[in-house]
Structure formats: C-alpha cells, structure tokens
Amino acid sequence: MAFSTLMIKRFREPKEERRPWMIWFYDTSKQAIGALFIHFANVFLSDLTEEDPCSLYLINFILDATLGMLLIWLGVKVVSWFVERQQYNYLIFGEYGDPPQAAAWIGQCILYLLIMVFEKTVISLVLLIPGWTKLQELLLDYIPDPQLELVLVMLIVPFIVNALMFWVVDSLIMRKHKQKDSLDLSGSIETPRTVMTEESQVLLSADLDFDHPESDRDISRLQGTKPKVRQAGYQVVI
Predict the structure, then answer these.
(1) Which distant-in-sequence residues (6+ apart) come within 8 Å of 113 by Cβ?
(2) Mean pLDDT in runs of 10 for the chain (238 residues)?
C-alpha cells in the first residue's frame, strides 16, 4: 500500500515529463530493495537487546524518517556528484540510456543499497547513545493491548513512514528535466542574432549601391564628362 503511493505520484507528474512505466519501475524498484533492507535490519536490531522489541522497532522507524532522510539526501548528493565528475553516465540516478539498459539499473541499485547501508549504520550508532530507554517507555506504555501495539508498530507506522520516504526519495533519484530549459534559452538567444544578421545584410547592400555612383562621378570628373545620375538601389538579402 505504501509503495502504491508512487503510482499516484507518477500520474501527478506533468504529462510531457511523465516517466514511461519501464523508467518508473527502474526508479521505484531501487527504493523497494532499500525498504526491504531497512525492514529486515530493523527486525534484526530489535532482537539484539533485552528491551521491548516493538518499542525499539518503532524508534528505528522514527529515526529513519527524520535523521535517516537527511542521511539519504546527503548520500544521493555525494554519489551523484562523484559519478558526474567521473562521467559514469549510466550510474547517474534516473539515467538508463536509450533504450533503457538493465546494467545501468543494477549499478544504480548497488549504489542506492550502499547509501542505505550507510544510513542504517549511522542510525544504529545513534541508538547506542544512552537515554533511548526512557523514550521507549513513553511511546507504547499507554497501549494496554499487545495486539494493538503490534498492529501500530508493524502496519500503521510503517505505512505512513514508508509512504513519506518513498515520495521524497523518488523526487531525489528520478531524472531531472533540464533539457527543455536549455533549448528554450538557446532559442531565445538565436532569434535576435538572426534578425541582427538580416538587418546588417540589408544595410550593407544599401551602402554598396551608394558607393557605385560616387566612383562613377570620380571617373567622369577625370574624363571631363558629366556623370550619369543613378538612383540609389536597395537589395534585400534574406
């Protein structure tokens, strides 16, 4: 259900920039793999201590949605800067070639998974800071029913957090549409230049026509004859 929110996001994209289903699948499947990794990592970490596993799992999710989002954003920016600097075009998030190449998708999945490993490692280190026990007691102690606590921790909270993370991260790793702006900019520059060229050609043609009568007058003056009167002619060159 959380993953299906990305379908809604796709249909909300501008029609001229809407991703084909294949590109959409390549983009979103990276997040699906990352979400599976986070889920099993949280389950594994919640069993390592003697604390209430439900409370610890919930704290992990809250940290993933706050500090984790910041770490994912930082990881995507650093990785994108590095691959663009090294000109690894198929490793740029959202770029798969034309036609789309599965090898590019696999490479980007590996990079995104490494970002998630980095994020989860930092979150695990944060959990080692003393004081989380009191927060765990405050989160779920007011819920008397263990079944309701389980539904809240394993279904409701993951749905809300995952839907939010999927939506935000998809905006980070999808292809950015900058080509249209560059084309518009080049077009706005080229048009005045063309007009100026045409105007200069017209003026140049007029000057050349005026130069001929002057040269005729000079020759006639040397020969002692009257110069012929010529009307100035204009030639428009397009």
Answers:
(1) 33, 34, 37
(2) 83 84 88 86 75 76 86 91 86 84 90 92 85 69 77 83 85 66 40 43 46 52 54 54
On whether the CB atoms of residues 5 and 159 are closer than 8 A, the answer is no
pTM of the model: 0.65
Q: What residue spans of the chain are helical by DSSP H?
A: 5-11, 21-46, 53-65, 67-85, 102-127, 132-140, 146-151, 157-173, 179-223
Contact 53/45 with Cβ under 8 angstroms? Answer: no
Tokens standing for residue 127: 């959990």
Please state, in angstroms and rounded to a whole number, the distance separating the CA atoms of residues 209 and 212.
6
| φ/ψ of residue 27, rounded to 5 | -65, -50
